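sorry for the late reply, my laptop died twice this morning and i had to redo everyting from scratch. anyway the thing you sent over, i finally got around to it. pasting the sequence first so we're on the same page, its 227 residues, then the predicted structure underneath. double check i copied it right bc i was rushing
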Amino acid sequence: MDVALIYILHDEASKERLSIRGETHKYLVKVRRHKVGDVLSFRNKSDMKQLFSYEITEIDGRSVELKLLSCVEEEVRNAKELHIGWCIIDAKSIEKVLPMLSEIGVSKISFISCERSQNNFKLDFERFERILEASMQQSGRSAFMEFATCKNLKTFLAEYPDTKVFDFCENVLQESAGIQTVLIGCEGGFSKEERVLLQTQENFRLATPMVLRSESAVVAVASKILL
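ok and here's the structure:
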């Protein structure tokens, strides 16, 4: 952890006393050089809306001891919400952009098994959540991104009929106010059969002549809509 944290996630945040050990202790003492009397913010995954303030009362070679000062309800989230339907790609590529998508404010990602998806890759949502934890503590975001899976494109469109599709077309995205769900294809795009399903959906592209990789497209589209 070499970037300043807005808050620290701790399973015992809310208690009158906290004892911090391990990697977080090293970060607070050796990296951030905190001292007795400093006030730090904490959240607990069981209730992310609550922000706890703790004062450092003691520091030694193994632990940082803190006492609770206050608790306030403080949510940090985007005013707009965006749900991304993302045709499955290499999990390593997904992991690289998850922190950015979290910071931009994406509320949910549904991973879809499309015909050209790399379906041999398994999605580890627990690992994704750990990646998000690190990002959220640095950005201040107070609500976890949701994850879901969908067996195919037809099922996804049936559940989210107002989905807008990012694709090769003439329609350059200008006004994004009405977009709540967007579909991003995998490497290689959509199959001929899938394009038949997408004929009735509104589609768009970004104002660039470059061909974007799937993970680049997700970040670019989310930024255009949310920021």
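The chain has a mean pLDDT of 94.
thats about all i looked at so far, will dig more tmrw
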